[in-house]
Amino acid sequence: MAKFWYLVCMITFLELSKLAISRPEQVPTPPLPVLPLPTFSQLKWQQRELIMFLHFGVNTFTDSERGTGKENPSIFNPVGLDTKQWVTVAAEAGISLMILTAKHHDGFCLWPSKYTDHSVISSPWRNGHGDVVQEFIDAVKTHGGGGIDAGLYLSPWDRHDKRYGHDLQYNEYYLAQLQELLTKYGSVKEIWFDGFKGNEARNMSYYFSDWFAMVRELQSSINIFSDAGPDVRWVGNEKGSAGNTSWSTINSTLLSIGNLSVLDYLNTGDPKGTNWLPAECDVSIREGWFWHKSQSPKMLSQLLDIYYKSVGRNCVMLMYRPIQPDSYQNLIFID
């Protein structure tokens, strides 16, 4: 009888043990991603919403929009320059990225480049020892509160340099300056390229693929902007307005830098696009890009409408902000 009850107890124990041991729950495997997908850098960029483009250079002192390349560097003397204020104002406005025009079409460099004397080296500002790019980068690091990153624009069209129009020589010059900017000043989160050049410009081919390759080699987490990406595309106008539907996807094989025949396609993107290439909506807070005393900022209602037509349509709003030429009362950059 004792053996019987022993067997009953053992069987009961084994059955209870089976119930106590939980089996791995069978769950469905996750589906494969629907391509294309953004990179980490692209995703972070799209979350910025508002970014800023600072236009500053010899045009600021000549009351012009497009320099001739013949300006005397001596006119560049911003004695009241205060990059800390630029960044402080941007931080208060919720800006997360500030892009500086390191060189505009006039060819004047805001940093002391080793490859030309058409720069701050030849100006009276800081007795020829100034560096706007360095002061800008330092201000972003120290006064951006950790929430602002730096970007740079190096104009491909150079109306000053004699190498322009000679493909090999100028592309080597451009690559050398690009290397300076991306190795000397630390982390840059967006580099801005365009294919614009005036009708009077000399015939010139830009080696964009080589430029982009160097950018990738020097800074892997940077976003490259141009009409055709490869990371961020132009929205197709300078009004800050995206299409009613603006897709982050597009077929990049249909795009090329400087191609004005695809502006509508850039504006809307493509729901069946094979490349993740979100749009950036650039617009000036004033009529022009550079500072002009005769111009005033757009009304708040206009800026709000632009915000809805850019950020509200799945894009990032890039606001051009001209810098005032000079002030002793700390009013640079404030309208």
UniProtKB/TrEMBL annotation:
Known EC number: 3.2.1.51
Keyword entries, A-Z: Glycosidase, Hydrolase, Signal
BP GO terms, sorted: fucose metabolic process; glycoside catabolic process
Pfam families cross-referenced by the UniProt entry: Alpha_L_fucos
Signal sequence residues: 1-22
Entry GO terms, CC: lysosome
MF GO annotations: alpha-L-fucosidase activity
Domain Glycoside hydrolase family 29 N-terminal stretches: 73-319
Family, per entry: Belongs to the glycosyl hydrolase 29 family.
PANTHER family referenced in this protein's UniProt entry, alphabetically: ALPHA-L-FUCOSIDASE, ALPHA-L-FUCOSIDASE-RELATED
Stated name of the protein: alpha-L-fucosidase
Lineage, highest ranks first: Eukaryota, Viridiplantae, Streptophyta, Embryophyta, Tracheophyta
